[in-house]
Amino acid sequence: MNGSNKSDDKKISPSATYKPxxxxxxEENAVTQGKSGSKFTKKESDxxxxxxxxxxDSKVSPNSEISLKxxxxxxxxxxxxxxxxxxEPKDNFGGMTKEELMKYANDPFWVRLRWFLFITFWILWAxxxxxxxxxxxxAPKCDPPAPKTWWQVGPLAGLKQDIKxxxxxxxxxxxxxxxxxxxxxxxxxxxxxxxxxxxxxQSIDVGTKVIxxxxxxxxxxxxxxxxxxxGTFDDYYIWQTPKFIDNIPNPPTNWMLSNSSSWKFSPxxxxxxxxxxxxxxxxxxxxxxxxxxxxVVKKFLEYGASGIRIRNAPFLLVDPKFEDxxxxxxxxxxxxxxxxxxxxxxxxxxADLGKLLLNWKEIITxxxxxxxxxxxxxxxxxxxxxxxxxxxxxxxxxxxxxxxxIVTDIVRRLNQTFKIDNVEWPLWGExxxxxxxxxxxxxxxxxxxxxxxxxxxxLDPQLLKIRDSQSxxxxxxxxxxxxxxxxxxxxxxxxxxxxxxxxxxxxxxTVNLNIRRDIPSLHDLExxxxxxxxxxxxxxxxxxxxxxxxxxxIPLSPKSVLVLQYVxxxxx
Length: 572
Prior knowledge:
Blueprint: H1 2-12, H2 14-17, H3 23-36, E1 71-75, E2 82-86, H4 98-105, H5 108-138, H6 150-153, E3 156-158, E4 177-181, H7 195-205, E5 209-214, H8 223-227, E6 239-240, E7 243-245, E8 248-250, E9 256-257, E10 260-261, E11 263-266, E12 271-274, H9 287-302, E13 307-310, E14 326-327, E15 342-343, H10 353-367, E16 372-375, E17 386-387, E18 390-391, E19 397-398, H11 407-420, E20 427-428, H12 437-446, E21 450-454, H13 461-467, H14 470-474, E22 476-482, E23 487-493, E24 499-505, E25 511-513, H15 515-518, E26 527-533, E27 548-550, E28 554-556, E29 561-566
Parallel strand pairs: 3-4, 3-21, 4-5, 5-13, 13-16, 19-20, 20-21
Antiparallel strand pairs: 1-2, 6-12, 7-8, 9-10, 11-12, 14-15, 17-18, 22-23, 23-24, 24-29, 25-28, 26-27, 26-29
């Protein structure tokens, strides 16, 4: 029995009975048997399905390894058989070795490919760089703001009638332009011997531009010919048939000026002619008359004028239907037959006036580099001087804003001018008996616009330096009534530049300003710098130019102006 046991032990001993199977052979057998559907099965009855190995290979090498991750053992539900499935391992690529890579290092194909990619990269990089430069160069650039013209920089000065050419040697060199009034009939021939032409030439010689002031409304050159109804000149003037009342000829309309009728009777033509200024008025609805004055404008430009100012512009056109003016029956103090009795809507500021002036504005624009067209009168109805919502007139005159020192009225009037009428750059012909002249000069020089001064006026270089700053020449203008409505204050500010604050005390008492409290847009302003003040400013502690002061306690003397500079806070 013991012998038999030993014999059985020898049969099942792996070292005596089985030959180690190589991994390759096991994989081949597993694949082959997997395809045929056979299984490795150990049966109790016999070992017919076992693979017997030769005796000489009966020992398993101690270094041999069988990976269990490639073997799957499945127990059969019946008779306890086991099935061993060998899974073919996946090929996991671990990369090329250095030796394998070196085989391609000098391969001509790969050498050429590497050079091609290298050169292509740098060509594309250079092309991208050149393209970026071209985009920057060719991209539309933000044009710098156009420089202000000579008449915007100003100031301008009006010459009196008795000024002689030799008097111009005393002209202030800071004055940019002179206004010379032509008192003669502008339509009559003239040449260089004319006194005003000599004056104009002398002004140009001293380096000052010239603006000629003309009255185009009247001339008697063609009146007699028109009076006889000559075909060409028949309607050079405004003619109308009398209105008969009880067989008595009367003026055709109730138009009047200066307390008298604007009509005069011509016995030769047996009609009335329009003469609001006592002289026959030209008919500017006749294109021939318009062209006559166009020739006058061209002639003055040829003599060196840089601009034209029109006198009596509001009266150039009249109602083509010749309707009566509306009678003001409820006007206090109105008397029948007086000018105050009618509302001049048929003879002043008519709607087509802007188109008429545009004819002459275009001539000036086409014949000068930076000429201008002005109107001598203040523009009451701004719409009459516009074409396509654009003002035809340059430097519209502004007067009497500060004649009554009521701050709320000042702010209202200026807001009307700048924000409603959209006047960008007016001409300040301001005169006020209630405020010192230097106070008015400071305020009007620092508001948007150009000042009108005497030709021998004294101009402070320090004030002109402040005016020349970007904040004054291009900045916005925000106006306020502060200090219990006794102080008119405005700020001038443009991005990237120091702001300017101007404060005018119109009252008779000193006012202490709190900038942070009184002006909402400067609520975070901590300090200001003293920049300029009027002659009557007498706060000693605030007369040190460039001194920095607390913005919450700024004293302002009566009837004086203080100019402050500040650094605007960046908007979030």
